[in-house]
Amino acid sequence: MKMKDDRLLSAEDWEDMGRAAYCLVAASPAQDLTSKQQLQQALQFAGFNPSMTRLNTFWPSGQSSMTFNHFLDIVEIEPKPSVNSLIGAFEKLDPGRNGWIHHETFYSDLTTKGDKLDETTVRNLLNNEEYNKDRKFYYRDFCSTVMKTSEELQNQALEKLKLEEKDHLVKTRTFKVKRKTSKSGASSPEKNLSTVRAMVHQQDYELKNVSVMKKGCFYVEDGTVLSHQYTLAITEKANIAIHFEVLSSHRSGKKVDGRLFIFGQERKYIGMTTIQNGQSTWIGNLDPGTYFLIPHSAGSKLRQSLAEENDKEIKIVEKSPEIKLTDDCKDVLKLIFDMMDLDENGSLSKEEFNLFNWRTSGEQISDEEWEVVLENFPLKDGELTLEGFLTLHEMEAEDNDGQDSELWLTLQSVGFNKNLSQTSSASFKIHVSSDDQLDQPLKLKVFGLKSSGNIIEDAIIRSTMQQCKNPMKVGGSSKLLLHHQKMEDCAFLVAQNKSEKEQSLQIDLRNSENILATRPDPVFSLKLGKKCATIVDIIVPVDLEKPWNIHLKPTILS
């Protein structure tokens, strides 16, 4: 298998590469990495060669495991390696661009400065006749070898993935909605795949030249918040307004907090929506290019709803006189259909149905399976209608002789509990517009379904530290600071350790009023590495109609 040029790899290619590399170290995506060395091996199989400083950032002191989802976040944000980037690093030691570095300079700089290498490693490299002559290290040859080795490791990973996919290929001419085998209990190899973004071939959704809309959902699974994520393509400089609205949950009427982060090229943080005149909005000038729109919610209210669930179960399948879905079940399936109809055109495209199938099973549908849907269920302009969606689930109930366990897995995976209340999901809408007259339409696409990951954490830290003009000095020290950013529907708390040693803090929120934190206990401790900043908590009001106050009492632990 010949590797593509890394610069030509699509997001889907990089996800495949990440999965393949991960599975060469862990048994499956459901199994966590358990050491920094395993993370290093997985990154090397994916074509990266991170420094120890970079590894320590990804795997801080005290960390014991890393999920597949977290690993993919790293693969996504890490700069993609190339021969030129490697040569550029060596050229810093070779101002004359001669292509070689004197042994004395090379040895001294690599063993005494920056991210130091051990002396034995450097000596072994300088003793290698392939890259050395006349006490000069010829780094261009070395960089070519490094990239060749990287390519070989990537190929090993992809070949393994290709063989596994071939072994598990199922050829069928009858379509059934795929399900997760279990909602709780023992973890299956597919379980954590639902936390991975669902890369799909997307179509454009255009309302008019200067306005475009898309829906999406927040989901909570195993304590992690997942959501649809988007790209926005703009062909000319324009003043852009982005509005983000979280919709009320079915039955409960609860409304969770939510905001939208905007990132530019290389995932550069641009800004986020904030409440303005009752709407969560961001307005600004954007240059031509592709931007990433990533929704975020603290998820506290969704987790709280899960904890408050009662055990009352509503009947969803009738068995007599014939097997059929109950009216309650049909009503909820209609809501789910509306949730999955991301462009609100009244039908589900292959991409939209694929995202539904990914959410309920962790698998994408094949072209053959979609053909079966097209051949057997009611359509509108080549897309699945509500009638077809209901028929598909009714046929499933019939195929299962009226047993409702698989249907319950569908309902629960999209956020509905046993009494058909929407407790662990929340829908939202994104509306992008411009007052400028544009030659080309705005284009908004879904590119995945996943957790927000490190990119949002970094943006929250940066935004909070920029917005907080008077951070709290913990213990009177200017080297240990607590930053806060309070908005209408949430507050970010960030701790910054500017000292050269690790610090331990205890945080006490017990005297706060009308708040709900992401941490389960109002009193908790956290460790801060040297010269770093971290999110302490994300806090939301229990009731937005009432005043809410955060009373923060930090204590330095000895």
Give an account of the 3D structure.
The chain has 3 domains: 1-169, Recoverin, domain 1 (Orthogonal Bundle), CATH 1.10.238.10; 191-451, Recoverin, domain 1 (Orthogonal Bundle), CATH 1.10.238; 453-557, Immunoglobulin-like. It has helices spanning 11-23, 36-45, 52-58, 68-77, 83-91, 103-112, 119-126, 139-167, 300-307, 327-340, 350-361, 367-376, 386-399, 405-413, 453-467, and strands at residues 100-102, 132-133, 136-138, 211-221, 224-234, 238-246, 259-263, 269-272, 274-276, 279-286, 289-296, 317-318, 324-325, 379-380, 383-384, 425-434, 443-451, 472-473, 480-486, 491-497, 503-508, 515-517, 523-528, 532-541, 553-557. A hairpin with a 2-residue loop joins β2 and β3 (136-138). With 558 residues, the protein is of the alpha+beta class. Residues 1-10, 164-175 and 179-209 have low confidence and may be disordered. The chain contains 15 helices and 25 strands. The chain is globular.
Summarize the structure.
The protein has helices at residues 11-23, 36-45, 52-58, 68-77, 83-91, 103-112, 119-126, 139-167, 300-307, 327-340, 350-361, 367-376, 386-399, 405-413, 453-467, and strands spanning 100-102, 132-133, 136-138, 211-221, 224-234, 238-246, 259-263, 269-272, 274-276, 279-286, 289-296, 317-318, 324-325, 379-380, 383-384, 425-434, 443-451, 472-473, 480-486, 491-497, 503-508, 515-517, 523-528, 532-541, 553-557.
Reconstruct the topology from this structure.
Layout: H1 11-23, H2 36-45, H3 52-58, H4 68-77, H5 83-91, E1 100-102, H6 103-112, H7 119-126, E2 132-133, E3 136-138, H8 139-167, E4 211-221, E5 224-234, E6 238-246, E7 259-263, E8 269-272, E9 274-276, E10 279-286, E11 289-296, H9 300-307, E12 317-318, E13 324-325, H10 327-340, H11 350-361, H12 367-376, E14 379-380, E15 383-384, H13 386-399, H14 405-413, E16 425-434, E17 443-451, H15 453-467, E18 472-473, E19 480-486, E20 491-497, E21 503-508, E22 515-517, E23 523-528, E24 532-541, E25 553-557
Antiparallel strand pairs: 1-3, 2-3, 4-5, 4-16, 5-11, 5-17, 6-10, 6-16, 7-8, 7-11, 9-10, 12-13, 14-15, 18-19, 19-20, 20-24, 21-23, 21-25, 22-24
Helix pairs in contact: 1-2, 1-4, 1-8, 5-8, 6-7
